[in-house]
Amino acid sequence: MTAISSRKEGVSPSDTTPKSVKVWDPIVRIFHWTIVTACTLNLFILEEGKYWHRLTGYVVGAAIAVRLIWGFIGTKHARFTDFWPTPRRVRDQIASIIDRNENRYLGHNPLASMMMLLLVALLAATALTGWMTTWDAFWGEKWLERLHGTIANSIMVLVFIHAGAAVLESWRHRENLIWAMVTGRKNA
């Protein structure tokens, strides 16, 4: 999690300043849009508990496994060490927002990091509880089905907050963060 200073990342003094820099690698972007698609399908389109709903849940589980591994061995901004939201980083970001002296981050900022990690944890819990409903030991257990649905609905609420924050941050920093997750590039 690197705040941007006056020195541009990846640019030597003899280079002309680029208009954009690579931030999000293909694995991060594919993970993000796989989750967006899967959540849209499972929350709004596919019938609960049926084949395609379950298959989509398994895709989410596999995507999470890949992303967790990539969080340790991936590119700079994909690694957890780059954006782990320590209490101090979160406090500093909140204070800088209040003071209107906020740093710009190439990767996830501390608050976005918290949201991302919370969403991944809830997605994993949803995939796990959905998978558990297929086990003989839990077949027809209403408490597990309710837990699965409650976690899924929590994800939906957080996704709306996440999307709203991306739009707000895009406006505040004059940078299209949604498009950056498509192209992998942000303003230099």
TrEMBL record:
Domain of life: Bacteria
InterPro entries found in the cross-reference section: Cyt_b561_bac/Ni-Hgenase, Di-haem_cyt_TM, Hydrogenase_cytochrome
Gene Ontology biological process terms, A to Z: respiratory electron transport chain
A Pfam family recorded for this sequence: Ni_hydr_CYTB
Membrane topology field: Multi-pass membrane protein
Keyword annotations of the record: Cell membrane, Membrane, Transmembrane, Transmembrane helix
Localization: Cell membrane
Protein name in the entry: Cytochrome b/b6 domain-containing protein
Species this protein is from: Rhizobium phaseoli
